[in-house]
Amino acid sequence: MSHAKLFSPSKAEGWFACAGRAVLESGIPDKSSGYSDDGTARHDVCAVCLTPPESNARDWVDRATSNGVVYKADWVDEDQDYIDTVRAMAVGGVLFVEQKVDFRRFIECTDPDDGFGTGDAVILKPLVDDTYELVVIDRKTGYHEVAVERNKQLLLYALGAYDEHSLVYDIRRVRLVIHQRSAREWDCSVEDLLAFGKEARSRAITVINAVSMHGKVEQAEWERTFLNQHPSEDACRYCKAMATCPSMQSFVQSTVGADFEAMATGEAVIDPEKVNEPDKLPLQMSAAGLIEDWIKAVRAEVERRLLAGTDVPGWKLVLGKAGARAWRDAEVAEATLKSMRLKVEDMYDLKVISPTSAEKLTKAPEGAKPRIGKRQWASLQAHITRSDPKPSVAPEADKRDRYTPPNVADDFNAEADPASSLC
Ligand code: SF4
Predict the structure, then answer these.
(1) CA–CA dist 120, 139 (Å, integer)
(2) Ligand 1 mean position to 11 CA, how many Å?
(3) In this predicted model, what pLDDT tens digit does every residue of 258-297 receive, in sequence order?
(4) pLDDT digits 0-9 by tens, 212-263
(5) Does the beta carbon of 297 lie inside 6 Å of ligand 1?
(6) If you take atom 5 of ligand 1, which residue's CA is the nearest one?
(7) End-to-end CA distance of the chain, in Å?
């Protein structure tokens, strides 16, 4: 059986937690989403901007990038912040952009096509007495916030970068930086980095064992030994095998308290003892995200199989409604409408621009005059309104402040102030 890369740094959270993942994912095609294509385009532009002759993000607006995606004006502010962050951190140091980082030595990987990645930016920054700090910076454009503390992808990059540079530079400290909307960082010592290298080696050996033992021991035993017995959102989120993974199936069945057959036939039996257990809502809420991910994965896998012509008993493909009507050729339609002598307001959907679009007109390239001046923008701002933010449920550890609904706050105040009940 052939496998894709076993030790991809971007999937390190997965292969550290689940040695058997690569075996289960084997043969399931990758999906390229519009979002990942956009992310690649933004990475490429940032890399080009940081490479001599240097440029800035705004120079790329409306230009096609290396993967054919047209660079959007909306991306400029955040990407420029990353570019400026890297430039500021590199002052006085040595900057490597899009550096190949090879960490095979640490995990004893002998496959020449595996065990390496590309660091978005690697900096060797002088400390004192000819010693250096290794800075590894990763640009993230996804919506899901990625933690920087002990981030395995960055630690693997740091191992590779350390291997590459430690003969020339006396590296004493390691700084990991994730730029996702803004920069966040975490420091560790070289000793901590090398200790992580040992942990990575031990996990890598288990992954190799999972691959070599598959099909050679009883399947149930293999699953018990090599699949993560405690699936979690962090470890399983991007696993292509989630829909069919036995470990996930056990997790869902034990959380829901019934097997799939009983659920599918409506014969799931309610255990009165379990119903009377103390409030399980907090636990169920903790499991909800992973179960939602699993449901999406199951739907996607059934659709993928049906589209590929594979039978899924009890399910079929149907066609939904046709899309909204559109002009086949907008210019021809416009000319035809003009020939009908329609008024402008009848012919065009005219709509005033949004505050966001108006704000963009307050900016202009260096030396040019913005379409909307500072005083004009100040007067426009008086006409801007926005809806109140809506409350949503978040884990206790979320960094945002706790929100107390006004009706709850009133009840609380009324209880705290006995005089209020006399009114
Ligand atoms: S879904 Fe299954 S195979 Fe995939 S990482 Fe989680 S436990 Fe491993």
Answers:
(1) 7
(2) 12
(3) 777 777 777 766 666 655 566 778 888 888 889 999 999 9
(4) 999 999 999 999 999 999 999 888 988 999 999 999 999 988 887 777 777 7
(5) no
(6) 236
(7) 78
Q: What share of the chain is helix, strand, coil (3-state, %, to 5)?
A: 50, 10, 40
Q: Per-residue DSSP letters for 328-396?
A: SSHHHHHHHHHHTT--HHHHS---PPPHHHHHHTT---TTSPPSS-HHHHHHHHTT---PPPPP----T
* pLDDT score recorded for residue 276: 58
Please return the burial class of 380, using the count of CB atoms within 10 Å of its CB with bins 0-12, 13-18 and 19+: middle
Q: Which residues contact 362 (CB under 8 A, 6 or more apart)?
A: 370, 371, 372, 373, 374, 377
Domain 9-212 has CATH 3.90.320: yes
| Atom 1 in ligand 1: residue holding the nearest Cα | 242
Ligand 1 pocket residue status of 248, Cβ below 6 Å: yes
Residue 413: the pLDDT is 60
Q: Looking at residue 35, what is its pLDDT?
A: 65
Domain ranges of the chain: 9-212, 241-307
* pLDDT of 41: 92
Site to probe by mutation for ligand 1, drawn from 8, 13, 203, 247 as the one with most ligand atoms within 8 Å of Cβ, is 247
Cα 251 to ligand 1 centre (Å): 11
* Distances 223 to 22, 218, 297 between C-alpha atoms, Å: 13, 9, 20
Q: What is the pTM of this model?
A: 0.76
Buried b (16+ CB within 10 A) or exposed e, 356-371: eebebeeeeeeeeeee
Query: What is the model's pLDDT at position 3?
Result: 56
Residue 423 pLDDT? 33
Taking the centre of ligand 1 as the mean of its atom positions, its distance from the CA of residue 12, in whole angstroms, is 13
pLDDT recorded at residue 407: 77
Spatial contact of 57 and 45, defined as CB atoms under 8 Å apart: yes
What b-and-e string marks burial along 238-275, b requiring 16 or more CB atoms within 10 Å of the CB? ebbbbbebebbbebbeebeebeeeeeeeeeeeeeeeee
Say how many CA atoms lie within 13 Å of 11 toward its Cβ.
22
Say if CB 184 and CB 178 are below 8 A apart. Answer: yes
Q: Judge if the beta carbon of residue 228 lies within 6 A of ligand 1.
A: yes
Q: Which atom of ligand 1 is nearest to the CA of 240?
A: 4
Tell me which residue has tokens 């255990």.
271
Looking at the CA of residue 246, tell me the nearest atom of ligand 1: 2
Specify the pLDDT at position 4: 67
Residues in the chain, pLDDT under 50? 418-423
